[in-house]
Specification:
The protein has 103 residues and is of the alpha+beta class. 28% of the residues lie in helices and 34% in strands. It has helices at residues 16-25, 49-52, 68-82, and strands at 2-12, 31-37, 56-63, 85-93. A four-stranded antiparallel sheet has the order 2-3-1-4. The two termini are 19 Å apart.
């Protein structure tokens, strides 16, 4: 097991390509994207996605701690310009090298 950084981004789906390009440019080449995300933000109101025609996406990615600075430097301008939220936390990655059934 080792410590990695978990990066969670909630943003407008219109900006998804730019965000994924930014992660890739920072050396984070794998991610998961969940589309049609809704919720309640700091403004205290929920957005009816049927009315806006634009949906939100949730992007989940992981990187080594030393990769985090370039990730933040590349993401911050996008989030400042287009909106969205980014959260970073420490998590433990478990890499399995042997199948438990073979023990």
């Amino acid at each position: 097991m080792h410590v990695v950084k978990k990066i969670e981004i909630i943003a407008n789906s219109f900006e998804l390509g730019k965000i994924l390009d930014s992660l890739d440019k920072s050396g984070v080449h794998s991610h998961a994207v969940i589309k049609n995300v809704t919720g309640k933000g700091l403004r205290g109101t929920t957005e009816d996605l049927d009315m806006t025609l634009l949906d939100n996406v949730y992007i989940l990615a992981f990187c080594m701690p030393e990769q985090l600075k370039p990730v933040i430097e590349n993401l911050r301008p996008l989030l400042n310009k287009f909106g969205g939220s980014c959260y970073v936390s420490d998590v433990m990655e478990i890499r399995s090298v042997r199948c438990v059934a073979s023990m």
